[in-house]
Design goal:
By secondary structure, the chain is mostly helical. It has a single domain (about 10-145), classed as Ferritin, core subunit, four-helix bundle (Ferritin), CATH 1.20.1260.10. Helices cover about 70% and strands about 0% of the residues. It has 5 helices and no strands. The protein has helices spanning about 10-35, 40-65, 85-90, 95-115, 120-145. Helix 1 (about 10-35) packs antiparallel against helix 2 (about 40-65), helix 2 runs antiparallel to helix 5 and helix 4 (about 95-115) packs antiparallel against helix 5 (about 120-145). The longest helix has 27 residues, at about 40-65. The radius of gyration is 15 Å and the shape is globular. The two termini are about 25 Å apart. The structure holds fe (ii) ion (2 copies). One fe (ii) ion binds near residues 48, 52, 107, 135 and 138. One fe (ii) ion binds next to helix 2, helix 4 and helix 5.
Length: about 150
């Protein structure tokens, strides 16, 4: 199921959902890191996890500036279809990376929508565009490892 994140009408709702999505992605990356045998893949995925956590901080700062308390974790709200519980049950490096590819398809879609949000001021739009660049880089790297580009 494709994510609905990015379709929110209010900026606050959009930012809250994006932050949840980024926490969910970071948790899924950690679950993947725990399962992967390939040490070089583990190192790269640790960097991607940090990118997602940085996104939660950047977007959280914006949300705080709007008077809202940002989410502090993914909690029980599983935003991604291949969340940490699914990833933790997978065996084989390719299967794990394939699951993360599915997750990154969702983060890419969410950020592609978010950069178009009519209420986003230029500073936030710039943050979202940098975020989208990160998400595209994550997806490209995974596809390359899986021999798809
Ligand atoms: Fe992100
Ligand atoms: Fe990502």
């Amino acid at each position: 199921m494709a994510t609905m994140v990015g379709t929110e009408s209010t900026l606050e709702g959009l930012l809250e959902d994006l932050i949840q999505l980024d926490y969910d992605a970071a948790d899924a990356y950690q679950a993947a890191i725990n399962r992967l045998e390939n040490a070089s893949w583990r190192t790269t995925l640790a960097n991607f996890k940090e990118d997602h956590l940085r996104h939660t901080r950047e977007l959280g700062d914006t949300l705080s500036g709007m008077g809202r308390t940002p989410p502090t974790g993914s909690d029980l709200k599983a935003v991604l279809t291949q969340g940490k519980v699914v990833i933790a049950g997978l065996a084989g490096d390719d299967a794990i990376l394939e699951a993360m590819r599915t997750n990154e398809a969702d983060t890419n879609t969410a950020y592609e929508r978010a950069v178009q949000h009519p209420m986003a001021a230029s500073a936030l739009r710039e943050t979202l565009e940098h975020g989208l660049d990160d998400e595209r880089r994550h997806c490209d790297w995974i596809l390359k490892q899986l021999g798809r580009n």
